[in-house]
Amino acid sequence: MTVRAIEWVPGAGTDGRGVLRILDQTVLPASTTYLDLETVDALVAAIEVLAVRGAPALGVAGALGVVVALDEGRRVGWDAGRLDFEIDRVRNARPTAVNLAWGVDQVRGLMPQGREAVLRAALELAADDEAANRELSRQAADWLLARTGRDRLRILTHCNAGMLATSAWGTALGVVRELHARGAVEFVYADETRPLLQGARLTAWELAADGIPHAVQVDSAAASTILRGLVDCAVVGADRIAANGDVANKIGTLGVALACHEAGVPLLVAAPWSTVDLAMADGAGIEVEERAGDEVTTLAGVRTAPASSAGFNPAFDVTPARFVAAVATERGVIEPAAGQTPGDTAPPA
């Protein structure tokens, strides 16, 4: 399957200068709908409702969001202060994922050189993301096959870290895709994943399209599946990786990590280097986003909990480095559980 979750379409849009187009992931798999985003309001809303999501894709959204802001500002006459304010709105729309702010920061300094310089840099960032995903997938696949000693792997995934979460190819699911291309995947257990069932709706959609054998399971089954010996490894993405190797990822990842630790099954985190935040000493400093409680207390608009019951809905958790067998980026594979850290072993760019 080849699909672009986020791209810049030249010549489109109100003034023909191009438009940011995203695949609306809130309506998958029932509908394949694309949204053209021409305003900061529309982009921020799309980020907040998870129409576009996934750390690497958010990095691309941040970079291209600067172009969206420049184009909107030109149309409506924003001054420099208002433009900076609107770009900050994009940058801060999702606090846990470092890539969104990183993407904005990568291109923002080019604004004095003009809109075309910003656009070129944003498009290069998107191309680099795809190349990074393919390289980290290759290195992660090599590591997993060597570590497990198996020719064909039974894999557990949590949330969606495929091409829908990136500019193309995928991170954690890119690793699965690389293994599948080598004939090295026996079966995938895809956790349904709260919030918004991104594993059931999105990961399963990608696995089915690629013809990869799989089943969707409820999140609460993951620990049992691991401890029963049904999987050889777990592969997940990340929204932020601290300098000591602590990993922030979708809520439920910590439970998967604890079960893997107990069972002696490796947990591999796959993410581009842009997800590593060397300024963040450890996971204690990572802000954990909380989503609306009614995502927990209702189902399809129908109340499933008593009216007096509140919903507690953290979107992410932080897994300590000691439970992370490996972190694979395009720069190589490190082993946090063995004492290696991104901060200690970061190679030159």
CATH first level of the largest domain: which class?
Answer: Alpha Beta
Counting H and I runs of at least 4 residues, what is the number of helices?
A: 11
How many runs of DSSP E, i.e. beta strands?
16
The percent of residues in helical segments reads: 25-40%
The largest pleated sheet is described as: 7 strands, mixed
Structural class: alpha/beta
The radius of gyration is: 20 Å
- Which range does the strand content fall in? 15-25%
User: What series of H and E elements makes up the topology?
Assistant: EEEHHHHHEHEHEHEEEHEEHEEEEEH
Basic shape:
globular
The name of the CATH superfamily of the largest domain reads Translation initiation factor eif-2b, domain 2
Cα end-to-end separation? 31 Å
Round the mean pLDDT to the nearest integer and report it: 96
- CATH-defined fold name of the largest domain: Rossmann fold
Point out poorly predicted stretches: none
CATH architectural grouping of the largest domain = 3-Layer(aba) Sandwich
List the domain count as a whole number.
2
As laid out across the biggest beta sheet, the strand order is 6-5-4-7-10-15-16
